[in-house]
Amino acid sequence: MRFSTNSGYVRGFLATALFVSVFFVHSQNVIVLGLAQDGGFPHIGCQKACLQAHQNPDLARYITSLALADAESGKWWLFEASPDMDRQIQYFHDLTNHQYNYLPEGIFITHAHMGHYTGLMFLGREALGANGVKVYALPRLIDFLSTNGPWSQLISLDNIDPVKMKADSSLTISENIQVTAFTVPHRNEYSETAGFRIETNKKDYLFIPDIDKWSKWDRSIVEEIKKVDYAFLDATFFQDGELPNRAMSEVPHPFVKETMALFENESELVKKKVQFIHLNHTNPLLFSEKARIEVLKNGFGIAEQGKVYN
Fold first, then answer.
1. I want to staple 61 with a disulfide (CB 3.0 to 4.6 A). Which of 41, 45, 86, 167 is the partner?
2. CA pair distance 160, 155, nearest whole angstrom
């Protein structure tokens, strides 16, 4: 299911009605609230493809984030506190016809890069002044938030309640949902980098928006994907040479073409589990129909903002 957007918000009674009907049919759902890399789309300083998104807000995309909604318990959780978090929370409620509490039960954060945790600022005294929102992360990230301002103030004022997760140990967040954090290799200046596995009554999901290269991980991404129903994977860059004035080795990520090559000999059933996410403003999957067709014809998926995965 796909919805047209206007300035990031779903418009139209029909779109909302269709979305709500899905929620009544399926108990747990993952919804894409954003799919762009940390700088968003349009991106600061971008004077090429981004100009179209400046001129036509329907082409704009929020920074990568997922929502997990559980209709049985009436609770929802947010994955990543992006700089777009204030609008993404409202976006979630527009999509779900305001069935859930305004704030999520908790926020799961992968690492301390700007697109993944800085949205926590909206929970502070200058904005919402929230009370005790649980923030789940691996130990180094929780320590970073606890010992560095302004994030430490969120803790001292009880705006957030930090919860340290243990790598490779599942955490039960509702009767039908477990979340497991695991580490992946990435630029860990301020914290480790996590990926998450979400297990629900009906479907299992993998979320790895940032990783250096699949070959650096101590696990096989192909085998990990075989264990789940959907996998939202790092697709920051489409191919080598995408940054004309910068060595791509300075910002290592698995190119979309590299990931597709890894799955070349896998079945269509396995390939279609892959949903490429976390797209840099240079990634043609944001603006080129030719690139999108190439990925889709090869059997892979591209995460869509506003889409329900269940």
1. 41
2. 5
| DSSP-derived 3-state class of residue 122 | helix
Q: Looking at the DSSP assignment, which residues form a beta bridge with residue 66?
A: 32, 79
Q: Give the separation between CA 202 and CA 177, rounded to whole angstroms.
A: 10
- Whole-angstrom CA distances from 61 to 38, 190, 202, 221, 225 are 11, 27, 28, 27, 26
* CA distances, 283 to each of 34, 148, 242, 251, 253 (Å): 15, 33, 8, 14, 12
Q: 13-25 and 85-95 are packed helices; what angle lies between their axes, rounded to 10 degrees?
A: 80
Is 173:180 a contact under the CB 8 Å cutoff?
A: no
- Show Cβ contacts of residue 304 under 8 Å, excluding neighbours closer than 6 positions: 2, 32, 35
* Helix residue ranges per DSSP H, 67-206: 85-95, 114-117, 139-147, 151-156
User: What one-character DSSP code corresponds to residue 52?
Assistant: H
Instruction: List, as own/partner pairs, every contact residues 149-156 make where C-beta atoms lie below 8 angstroms and the sequence separation is at least 24, other chains included.
Output: 150/121, 150/124, 151/117, 151/120, 153/124, 153/125, 154/120, 154/123, 154/124
Mean pLDDT of the chain: 90
Task: From residue 48, give the alpha-carbon distance in Å to each of 41, 112, 237.
Answer: 11, 29, 16
The structure's pTM equals 0.91
> CA-CA distance, 59 to 147, in Å (whole number)?
38
**How far is the C-alpha of 42 from the C-alpha of 73, rounded, in Å?**
36
Instruction: Give the residue with greater pLDDT, 3 vs 270.
Output: 270
Q: How far apart are CA 279 and CA 295, in angstroms?
A: 14
Q: Going by C-beta distance under 8 Å and a sequence separation of 6 or more, which residues neighbour residue 269?
A: none
**Alpha helices (runs of H) in the chain, residue ranges in sequence order:** 13-25, 49-55, 85-95, 114-117, 139-147, 151-156, 221-225, 256-262, 268-271, 289-297
Token representation of residue 74:
């009436």
Q: 145 — phi, psi (to 5°)? A: -65, -35
Reported as a pLDDT band with limits 50, 70 and 90, residue 26 is: low
